[in-house]
Amino acid sequence: MPEYLLYFNQQWVGDHDEEWFRPRGPLARAVTEEMKAAGVYVFAGGLEEEDGPVYSADPTSGEVLVTDGPYVETKEFLGGFAIVDVPDDETAKHWAAKIAEACGWPHEVRRFKNYPPPPSED
Predict the structure, then answer these.
(1) Predicted TM-score (pTM) of this structure
(2) pLDDT computed for residue 75 by the predictor
(3) pLDDT tens across 48-72, in order?
(4) Where is the YCII-related domain (predicted)?
(5) Cβ(40)–Cβ(85) under 8 Å?
(6) Rounded Cα gap, residues 17 and 81, in angstroms
(7) CA–CA separation, 92 vs 84, rounded Å?
(8) Distance in angstroms (rounded) separating the CA atoms of residues 16 and 107
(9) Under DSSP, is residue 79 helix (H, G, I), strand (E, B) or coil?
(10) CATH at 68
(11) How does pLDDT run across 81-106, given as a tens digit for each residue?
(12) Whole-angstrom Cα distance, residue 16 to residue 22?
């Protein structure tokens, strides 16, 4: 089955106080548990915003340069994501709608490329 990335940029969350956010965590965790029970869950998680480390790896100079901080200064950054293993786009959209509703902000859906399996060594 194809795998899909359900994700949001942190800027899509909007400005809300702690009281607004407090009930969102249990709702999102409930959808994650529902994904697990349905057998479509691969991974889900939110990314640390300000306190977590951010590194970039840039190979364009001929050597890989690993530095602190994002590669490009931008106002948008990935806030969190889930990966689901589902049969089709409609099912991926179903789960995206459930997690977006639980979180209270928009999510985008992207299908991972389907690469052919490596040749067997028979």
Answers:
(1) 0.79
(2) 66
(3) 777 778 888 889 999 999 988 765 6
(4) 30-99
(5) yes
(6) 22
(7) 7
(8) 17
(9) strand
(10) 3.30.70.1060
(11) 999 999 999 999 999 999 999 999 99
(12) 10
Cα-to-chain-centroid distance, residue 101: 15
> How far is it, in rounded angstroms, from Cα 12 to Cα 54?
20
**What radius of gyration do the chain's Cα atoms show?**
17
User: Nearest to residue 85, comparing CAs of 46, 36, 118, 27?
Assistant: 36
Is 13 part of any domain? yes
Site of tokens 């994904």: 35
DSSP string for 24-46: HHHHHHHHHHHHHHHT-EEEEEE
Any domain includes 25: yes
Domain that holds residue 23: 3-111
Note the helical H segments in 1-122: 18-21, 24-38, 89-103
Q: 98 and 31 in contact (C-beta within 8 Å)?
A: yes
